Description:
Helices cover 29% and strands 52% of the residues. The protein is an alpha+beta fold. It is rod-shaped.
Amino acid sequence: MNATPQLNTRLLEIAYQMRIRRTREAVDSLRADGPALAEASEQMRLARILRKGTVMKTRMILALTTLGTLAASSAFAQEPGSAPTAASPKMRVAAQVEMLPVGSGKATIDDTSMTQDAAIAYGVTGTFDYALTPYLSIGVAPRLILNVISDDADNDESADKELDLRARVLGHYAVAPKLELYAALMPGYAIVLSGTDGVDNSSGFAIGGAAGVTYDVSPRLFVGGEVGYQRAFTSNDITVGNQTVSADLSLSYMHVGLGAGTRF
C-alpha cells in the first residue's frame, strides 16, 4: 500500500527527466542547424523581394505601354491628315454670259483676201469640268455667239451666229481660302451659222484660251469672271447665180465673261 505512492513519484521523476533531455536535444539540434536555417530563411526573404520586384516591374511596363498607346492614339486622332474628311467635290457646272468687244474676220476666196473688224458680239457659255487632281481639270465648254457681223455692215444685213463645240483643260490654284485663279486651254470645232441667203454655214478647227478667277460664296456655289481669246479657221461654199466657190473664213474674238456655278 505504501509502495504505490513512491512508485508513482519515481515514474513522474523519470518522465520529467526524459522531457528535459528531449528539450535539450531539440535545442542542440536547433543550434547545430542554425546556420542552415538562417541561410534558408535569407533565401526565402530574397525570393520574396525578387518576386515583389518582378511584379512591380511588370506592372510598370504594362502601365507605360498603356500610356504610350493612349498617347499615340490621341496624337493620331489629332493629326490633321489622319481624321477622315468628306471628299472634295470633283465636278462642277457653270454658266457664263460674255461680251466680245474686239474681233475681226478674214475672208479668202481664191487668192483674194479681205479683213474686216467685227461688231460687238455677245455670247453665252456653259461649262462642265471634272477634277483629275486638285490643280487640273478637264471638261467641255460649248458657246453660242450672237451678232457675228462686220462693224460697217448695213442695217438691213443679217448677222451670223457662231456655235463653238469646245473641250477644256483647266489649271487652277487657290490663292486664298475662297479665291481661286485659273487658266484654260480650249480646242474645239466652230460652226458659223450663216444668216445670208446663198452662203452655206462655215465650220472648222478653233483654238482658244482664257484666264480668270472664281470666288466661293458657299461651300458649293461660286461666281467668277474671265478674259479670253479664240480664233476659228473655217471654210464654206458661196453660191452666186449658177457659180459656187469655196471660201475660207477666219474669225477671232476677245471676250470678257461673268458667270456662276456649283460644285458637286
